[in-house]
Automatic annotation (TrEMBL):
This is Secreted protein. Residues 1-26 form the signal peptide. It comes from Microbacterium trichothecenolyticum (Aureobacterium trichothecenolyticum). Keywords: Signal. It comes from the Bacteria. The keyword Signal applies.
């Protein structure tokens, strides 16, 4: 029960800070891939990102909020307490096996979070491949079997 409360507190803390009352998966980035039927659940974090297991993770538990001139994305992932190494020559193989952290850890992945509407594999907007794509920092908070990813983009940089 205590673990569940702490995980909930982490999620609520991140959401509170925001003010809330992939056949070609992208293994090197994260974001809200909301328009690709091949990517399950919508929000994803790639295996190569720091702070995540050595496999791509997906969730349908996310929120998008426009506040203070920015679009904020918060994704909540449930992951196993242990993920074996992905195998030599596979995505994330350099990470080795992953154990869920027993205390909260924070990882920052500069320029890895893509806004909604951007194809995860090509990193281009689906409706206009010439449009500039802003890449935001993905902040990953991991604790036990919970991972929260937070990204934010200035609205002035979005279509």
């Amino acid at each position: 029960m205590r673990t569940r409360n702490i995980a909930a507190a982490i999620v609520l803390g991140v959401i509170g800070a925001v003010g809330v009352a992939l056949p070609a998966y992208a293994d090197h980035n994260g974001g809200a891939e909301l328009y690709d039927p091949d990517i399950p659940n919508g929000c994803y974090a790639g295996a190569i990102m720091t702070g995540t297991p050595p496999v791509d993770i997906f969730t349908s538990t996310y929120t998008l909020v426009e506040k203070a001139g920015s679009l904020h994305l918060v994704c909540y992932f449930r992951v196993p307490a242990y993920v074996p190494a992905s195998g030599e020559g596979t995505t994330g193989d350099w990470k080795g096996e992953w154990f869920a952290p027993t205390s909260p850890t924070v990882s920052r992945n500069a320029g890895t979070c893509l806004p909604p509407g951007v194809d995860a594999a090509s990193e281009l907007y689906r409706d206009d491949e010439t449009r500039h794509v802003p890449h935001a920092e993905a902040t990953i908070v991991a604790y036990r079997t919970s991972i929260v990813m937070y990204c934010s983009w200035p609205l002035s940089q979005l279509p």
